[in-house]
Amino acid sequence: MLFPVPPADPQHVDFFQLAQDSIAAARRRREHDAEAAYLVALGVMQQFHAPS
Predict the structure, then answer these.
(1) Would you state the torsion angle of the CA atoms of residues 12, 36, 24, 8, taken in this order, to the nearest 10 degrees?
(2) Cβ-contact 7, 45 below 8 angstroms
(3) What's the distance, CA 1 to chain centroid?
(4) What does each C-alpha distance from 13 to 10, 23, 28, 30, 32 come to in angstroms?
(5) Which pLDDT band, with edges at 50, 70 and 90, does 7 fall under?
(6) What is the domain count for the chain?
(7) Residue 4 lies in a domain
(8) How far is CA 51 from the centre of its chain?
(9) Residues 19-34: pLDDT tens digits?
(10) What residues contact residue 52 under an 8 Å CB cut-off, 6+ apart?
(11) 22 in a structural domain
């Protein structure tokens, strides 16, 4: 399991921004990977925000 990361951590924020950018880029290119990238990002978000 990943350790909880405080929202104030710049790396934490940058990571989610990168995930959003990846999804947006995939959608702009209309690639089939867009849905997969979205699901991966959701999975990562669930790990960070998992109930304790």
Answers:
(1) -10
(2) no
(3) 16
(4) 5, 16, 23, 26, 26
(5) low
(6) 1
(7) no
(8) 17
(9) 888 878 877 776 666 6
(10) 4
(11) yes
Considering only CA atoms, which of 25, 51, 52 is closest in space to residue 38? 25
Write down the pLDDT at residue 40.
Answer: 84
Domain span including residue 17: 10-48
Could you tell me if residue 20 is inside a domain? yes
What is the SS3 assignment for 29-50? HCCCHHHHHHHHHHHHHHHHCC
Q: Are 5 and 48 in contact (CB under 8 A)?
A: yes
Q: CA-CA distance, 16 to 21, in Å (whole number)? A: 9
Residues 21, 6: Cα–Cα separation, whole Å: 21
Closest CA to 16 of 35, 42, 36, 50: 42
